[in-house]
Structure formats: structure tokens, C-alpha cells
Amino acid sequence: MSKPAKPSTFESALAELEEIVAEMEAGQLPLEKSLAAYKRGAELLKFCQGALQDAQQQVKILEEGALKNFGATGQ
Could you say which DSSP state residue 30 is in? Predict the structure, then answer.
């Protein structure tokens, strides 16, 4: 697998991860390629989890700002 070390977006990482899962579930990869695919999948999973955590943090910040603005105008 000659894929880039770091995906550019959450969506591209998720698509690549789904592709790896499908290949591994098919059971047609030799052991060495299965190990490489597993390692790449773990890297992609970590990237996706980080991207989701970042998005959750941004939503939290936006919600707090909206609640503060709402409270300020309601008085």
C-alpha cells in the first residue's frame, strides 16, 4: 500500500479506512499485507478520532458563544 502518511480530510480518511476494512474482510490479503493494512487502518482511525474530537470542541465553543449571546440579549 503506497498511500500518503496523513490523509487530507476526515472524509478521505474514512473512505480509505472503509476500503481497508473491505479488503481485510474479503480475506484475500497475504499476511504481510494484512499487517500493513491493519497498521494503516489504526493510523486512519486515530486521525478520524482526532478530527471528530476537534469538531466536537468547535461545536461546544460555538454553542457556548450562542448561549452567552442569547443570555445577553434576553435581559
Answer: -
Range(s) of the domain holding residue 25: 10-73
Q: Could you give phi then psi for residue 7, rounded to 5 degrees?
A: -70, 155
Q: pTM above 0.90?
A: no
Q: What is the DSSP letter of 3?
A: -
Say if residues 11 and 51 touch (Cβ distance below 8 Å). Answer: no
Hey, how many other C-beta atoms are within 10 angstroms of the C-beta on 19? 15
Number of domains in the chain: 1
> Does residue 66 belong to any structural domain of this protein?
yes
- In degrees to the nearest 10, what's the CA dihedral of 19, 24, 28, 32? 110
Mean predicted confidence (pLDDT) in 24-44: 95
